[in-house]
């Protein structure tokens, strides 16, 4: 199954200050004081090209362990790995060393990840780029000794799944590193990150693991990317995660027949894409999904729980599509991290209390002098129910909005009533309903269309959750608009002259 993950393709140059004190000496083979990762660990991805400090975001989010993405060569044919393939970001204590040292001092650690969609697509994944197994192994060992880490992740997707020579070189290099580590008293684990179907790995992903077995390479964890299915179907993401992981468990049982049921589950890792993924709203991982997956992962005893990516764990672009820096859904900052954090160490504590807000329907029309209603639904997404105060904002002149009741216990509902006076101007307007509780605030948007005999906006109003393709027409705020290409969540009139929406003029 192909993977299209543009969020991982952007590369921005970054230089991180000063070497960390206490890091292992580059190239040293002697055992260091590195502590193995917990048997159950939450380690979200950190986008290393953004210029953010991993230590700062780990502290702010509460995610003690991070998966650092990505290491790759600067060009195809090279055997030298750099962060993001940027030659100004070598594997050295001067690049992320201070951050990693701080993370470790705070009780966490990092998992450097090689590959990623951009590298796998462009031939700069190190085992695709470099044809010498010993040099690939040396690149892995350099990361181990430079940062004194105990796990390396290998993100293999897109073209790397069909490069059989690269697959074989990669697994042979893993075996060499494992032999080197054993001879030098080190602990080094390897995890594979692979795309998945809703019923387990596709055959090209299984082929990677079969080759590892044939080369005697020990794979400690298999992380499934339970998103970007690109099958054209609507998905219940938490359910799909469970069926996918259960399918992987069965596949691992075939590959490793001597392992017990518990040992097989301890090889499973899950990676979600929080909020709206690259495919669009049909694949949206919600806070409620996160709680379901957390509880299920604890019950099964899986090894790793992760998501793409830490910088997306906020609701700053609610109602839009997938983006590097936000989830595209209504949420409080670090809401997903707070749900998954207790997983490290076995999930012995309960996630913090939180809730969600949604509207059914999410849009409606009203003529001047008339009214329409919608149901405001709240749900407990983690922990226990709390009191949620509701309010509405954004109604245009001549339109009044009421909520009954104006306060509910999470899990309850309220009725939104919108009434338009005779003077209400025709057009489409976003009305925001915000719920506020002890966990913070969450919002949902009701798209209101005021009709009237004086209005010539007969084209259907823009819908923030709809998917549009080139040539689709909508009306919004008194104007007609033409979509120039595929889009969702981008409000007409906000993307500028070169944006997706062409202004066709007033209705």
Layout of helices and strands:
Layout lengths: L40 E2 L2 E3 L6 H8 L3 E9 L7 E3 L13 H9 L3 E7 L1 H6 L3 H4 L3 H15 L3 E5 L8 H20 L5 E7 L7 H12 L6 E5 L11 H19 L5 H5 L2 E6 L1 E3 L2 E6 L1 H14 L3 E5 L26 H6 L13 E7 L2 E4 L4 E12 L4 E7 L5 E6 L2 E3 L3 E8 L6 E11 L2 E11 L16 E2 L4 E4 L2 E5 L3 E2 L12 E6 L1
Parallel strand pairs: 1-12, 2-3, 3-5, 5-6, 6-7, 7-8, 8-9, 9-12, 14-21
Antiparallel strand pairs: 3-4, 10-11, 13-15, 15-19, 16-18, 16-20, 17-19, 20-21, 22-25, 23-24, 24-26
Helix pairs in contact: 1-2, 5-6, 8-10
The dominant shape is elongated
Q: Could you estimate the helical fraction of the residues in percent?
A: 10-25%
**What is the CATH homologous superfamily assignment of the largest domain?**
Glycosidases
Number of strands: 26
Provide the residue-averaged pLDDT: 88
Q: How many strands, which pairing sense, and closed or not: the largest β-sheet?
A: 10 strands, mixed
Tell me what the CATH architecture of the largest domain is: Alpha-Beta Barrel
The CATH class label of the largest domain is: Alpha Beta
| Percent in strands | 25-35%
- Unreliable runs, pLDDT <50, ≥5 residues? 1-33
């Amino acid at each position: 199954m192909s993977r299209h993950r543009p969020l991982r393709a952007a590369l921005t140059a970054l230089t991180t200050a000063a070497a960390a004190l206490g890091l292992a000496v580059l190239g040293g083979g002697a055992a260091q004081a590195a502590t193995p990762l917990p048997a159950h660990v939450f380690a979200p991805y950190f986008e290393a090209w953004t210029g953010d400090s991993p230590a700062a975001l780990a502290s702010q989010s509460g995610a003690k362990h991070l998966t650092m993405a990505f290491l790759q060569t600067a060009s195809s044919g090279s055997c030298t790995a750099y962060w993001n393939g940027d030659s100004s970001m070598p594997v050295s204590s001067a690049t992320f060393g201070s951050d990693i040292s701080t993370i470790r001092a705070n009780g966490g650690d990092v998992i450097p990840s090689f590959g990623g969609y951009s590298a796998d697509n462009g031939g700069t994944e190190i085992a695709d780029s470099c044809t010498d197994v010993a040099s690939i192994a040396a690149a892995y060992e350099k990361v181990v000794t430079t940062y004194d880490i105990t796990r390396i992740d290998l993100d293999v997707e897109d073209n790397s799944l069909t490069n059989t020579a690269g697959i074989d070189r990669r697994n042979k290099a893993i075996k060499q590193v494992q032999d080197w580590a054993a001879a030098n008293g080190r602990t080094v684990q390897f995890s594979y990150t692979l795309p998945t179907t809703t019923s387990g790995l596709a055959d090209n992903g299984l082929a990677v693991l079969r080759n590892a077995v044939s080369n005697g390479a020990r794979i400690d964890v298999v992380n499934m990317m339970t998103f970007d299915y690109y099958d054209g179907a609507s998905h219940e993401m938490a359910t799909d995660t469970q069926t996918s992981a259960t399918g992987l468990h069965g596949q691992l049982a075939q590959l490793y027949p001597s392992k017990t049921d518990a040992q097989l589950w301890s090889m499973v890792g899950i990676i979600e894409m929080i909020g709206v993924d690259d495919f669009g709203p049909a694949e949206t991982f919600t806070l409620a999904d996160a709680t379901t997956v957390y509880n299920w992962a604890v019950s099964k005893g899986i090894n790793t729980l992760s998501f793409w990516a830490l910088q997306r764990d906020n609701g700053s672009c609610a109602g839009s599509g997938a983006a590097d820096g936000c989830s595209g859904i209504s949420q409080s900052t670090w809401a997903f991290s707070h749900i998954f954090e207790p997983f490290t160490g076995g999930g012995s504590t309960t996630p913090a209390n939180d809730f969600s807000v949604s509207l059914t329907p999410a849009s409606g029309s009203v003529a001047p002098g008339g009214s329409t209603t919608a149901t405001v639904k709240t749900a407990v997404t983690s922990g226990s129910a709390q009191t949620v105060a509701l309010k509405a904002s954004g109604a245009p002149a001549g339109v009044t909005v009421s909520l009954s009741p104006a306060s509910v216990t999470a899990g309850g509902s309220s009725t939104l009533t919108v009434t338009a006076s005779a003077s209400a101007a025709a057009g489409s307007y976003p009305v925001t309903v915000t719920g506020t509780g002890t966990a913070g605030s969450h919002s949902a948007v009701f798209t209101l269309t005021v009709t009237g005999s004086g209005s010539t906006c007969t084209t259907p109003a823009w819908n923030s959750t709809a998917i549009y393709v080139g040539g689709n027409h909508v009306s919004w705020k008194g104007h007609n608009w033409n979509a120039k290409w595929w889009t969702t969540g981008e409000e007409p009139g906000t993307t500028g002259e070169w944006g997706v929406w062409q202004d066709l003029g007033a209705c």
